Amino acid sequence: MAHLAAAVQGFTALLARLMLTAIFLMSAVGNKIPQFQETAAYMAAEGVPNPKFALFGAIGLLVLGGISLILGAWTRMGALFLFCFLGAATFYFHDFWQFSDPGQRQLQIIQFMKNMAIGGGLLALAAFGGGPWSVDGWIEQRQAEAETAAAKPQRAGAKGVQQAA
Prior knowledge:
It is a single chain. The protein is mostly helical. The chain has one domain. 76% of the residues lie in helices and 0% in strands. It contains 6 helices and no strands. It has helices at residues 2-32, 36-45, 51-71, 75-93, 102-128, 135-151. It is elongated, with a radius of gyration of 24 Å. 22% of the residues are buried.
């Protein structure tokens, strides 16, 4: 039963990591990298300081964080990378408090809240890790096995301890 529970947890954590990663990697590979100049110009118009430098940093956070989550390697760090990107993007691009048009304001509130929900998922990964079906989980399992093996008392073999006569 424990094996089944671990398999369900592993699959669920992997699926969560993949689902969270999709939006970030698609943003980097499908938009920010191929449309670098246009994206930097848009960032400048939204008030992002030093937009080209910020865009390089954003792409780095997206790609490194995304790969980290897919593999489940350094999952907590990757989740925090994506959380940092998400926080800045939410502040600069979904600043609903700046809109007087009720339709635009409502649209930005929805985008802001969507990012809050994604951020919650990223914080959960930062807190609990990538799960058993991840590089991090594999390393943790190997460490636990090594600690268990080291803690077991060694059996004396046939040639083992000789009794004094």
